[in-house]
Amino acid sequence: MKQDFVLEVGCENLPSGYISGALDQLRMLFADGCKAERIQYGGLRVFGTPNRLVVFIEGLSSRQRADEERVTGPPVKVALTENGQFTRAAAGFAKAQGVPVDALRTIETGRGAYIAVVRRIEGRRTSAVLKEKIPGWLRLIRFPKTMRWDGSDFRFARPVRWILAMLGERRLTFKIGALSAGNVTRLSPYKKEYVTVESTGHYFAVLRKKGVILDQEKRRDTVRRLAGEAARALGGSLIEDEDLVGSVSNLLERPTVLTGSFDRSFLSLPREVIVTALKSHQRYFSVAGRGGRLKPCFIAFADGARRNKREIIKGYERVLQARLADAEFYYREDTSKPLSVLAEKLDGIVWLEGLGSVARKTGRMELLACRFKSEWGIGDPGLENIIARAARLAKADLASEMVKDGKEFTLLQGYIGREYARVSGESDEVAEAIFEHYLPRFAGDGIPEGEAGILLALADKLDTITGCFILGLGPTGSQDPYALRRHALGLLRILIARKAGIPLPGAIRYSIDLFGKEGIELPGIGRELEKMIIDFFRQRLTSMLRGEGFDYDLVAAVLTAPWEKPVTAREMAAELQRMRNDGELTGFVLAMKRVTNIIPRDMKKPVDVDAGRKAMHAFSGQTPEALGFSPALFSEESESRLFEEASRTLGDLLRIEENAHGGRYLEIIARIVPAINRYFDEVLVNCDDREVRDNRHAFLLGLHTAFSLFLDFSCITGE
């Protein structure tokens, strides 16, 4: 017989951010627990509101599944005589297991034949197992912060006020801390209004009747729908915010929509300041009117039907009035002076202990951005003036009343800087660059559009990453307190999306040197720090390309080679994937691997940029002696043909290296494949003549070194 099961843990209001994590844990604990206890079921769902966490299991079997237990004894050669009689060893094993000798069985294992005792384990009643196991499962739930409240050792995010546990029409009784489970639920943890539940089906009917929406997605949909309808009733449209929808839906069980207003004079504040004031602490939705301008009204929610809506709205308006008045004061104070005056205060603000002030950071940003401009070759000479001005003002809003000291408007840094720059009469290019240099701020955020914004965004992110690595503050495991992974992904996104042909290793080296010139002690020896940062970017770029669906071995082939430009690396990975999907990769890879595989292992060394470029120049300039081989020792026509083809191919690659598309590189490299195949068909590389053999090895090693600058062909598998 199968029955449905429901568990409800009723508690005081859970923080909005705790609910999703708790539900994920509940789902895993009950799924894993039922599996371990051999309890079969049809489906498992979890629901959560601020006042209750619910587990619902459909079609739960009434008993555990029966099982067998095997206890292995001595091997057959020890337990049985030649004529099949049990030995004293077998008799001793049977006695230890409490069974007669004739109950022993012979089983086959990976180590051979053994005797064993096989016992059938009958399943216990599911109700008994659940009563025994649920308290332990609930104790395993982890929250960011927990508390005790009843004198027991049970900890939870908020005080638990009731527990309901029903299997079909039967209640399950067990204790968690000082609280006993039963068949009673409550609408609120703050009112002692009890409802007796007769069955699992009756439980859901009770909550529906009371207006409680258990399902988180349904609650989100309800909040979104009610907010949209209210905005239209106010003559405007809802400013959509999915984060706010999620936050509000986790604060309510029975969403009731309310609308209020604020003084129209506050509309003189920048739009995002008002939206943030409504959202940050009050969880209010904003309403836009014609042309996207804000209307002096808001949409809020209360939990459950309310008779005193007018009084609630007055309370909401009173709190919002205070927030907006604060914002108006900050704005008036900040804009009473030019933004450049705020920038002068950055000398007194420490960026990171040991790395100087924020003002010094903006100075490095300017130098880095100009370096990026030069290497990328974009913009006219006047762009450097825009960069210099925007860099100086980029962090000025950190000294403003609106942003500093960790108030709710702190997240508006950059936006506030742009608005203050406009008020101060700065050019549109400078104002936009101040805002855009923070982009992207999170996954899915936009990237800079303006040239100055792009260059300053790259500079800011690289400077932050370099500085943190100098202090030994790089990410470790799941810990990344300075969001360096986000900064690196943002930098890579910009370089790739804007097709910026900027060599990253050189930029990293320059960034490190800027810190060194300021007298900051650099860790490591030589280029050790640079290598650490490059490896960090390689990991992020690997994750990024794998996330786009490129095969792991193809990404590894590109990034194990001494890559320099992220945009080219991404294009090469895309072209390799296309070649594989179109069936063009096999012949290309096998030809290049023939070169690599025949070179003696002791001759191979890791290929770096300098070695690769040296080999390319030697072939293109037809100066083979630089690589230790001589065409005079070639005895086969196919040897000379391969040398000529390599010289032409690598010469072409050198000519387009500065601005080539990654796919173009591979197209040119593929031209040499027929010459390679002909070479190996006609030439015996490991011949008896040592001088000729060594010359052929040096020739092929040169080819390997030159082409490994673009791809590590040994990483590509399955071709």
Structure described in brief:
With 719 residues, the protein is α+β, with helices and mostly antiparallel strands. The chain contains 26 helices and 16 strands. The protein has five domains: 2-64 and 125-209; 67-121, no CATH class; 216-334, no CATH class; 340-547, Hypothetical protein af1432, CATH 1.10.3210; 566-715, no CATH class.
- CATH topology heading of the largest domain: Hypothetical protein af1432
Q: How many structural domains?
A: 5
Helix content: 40-55%
Low-confidence stretches: none
Could you walk me through the main structural features you see in this protein, from its secondary elements to its overall organization?
This protein is 48% helix and 13% strand. By secondary structure, the chain is of the alpha+beta class. The chain has 5 domains: 2-64 and 125-209; 67-121, no CATH class; 216-334, no CATH class; 340-547, Hypothetical protein af1432, CATH 1.10.3210; 566-715, no CATH class. The strands form 5 sheets. A 5-stranded antiparallel beta sheet has the order 2-3-1-7-8, sandwiched between helices. A 4-stranded antiparallel beta sheet has the order 13-15-16-14, sandwiched between helices. Strand 5 (105-109) and strand 6 (112-121) form a beta hairpin. Helix 11 (358-376) packs across helix 15 (451-470), helix 20 (566-581) crosses helix 24 and helix 21 crosses helix 25 (673-682).
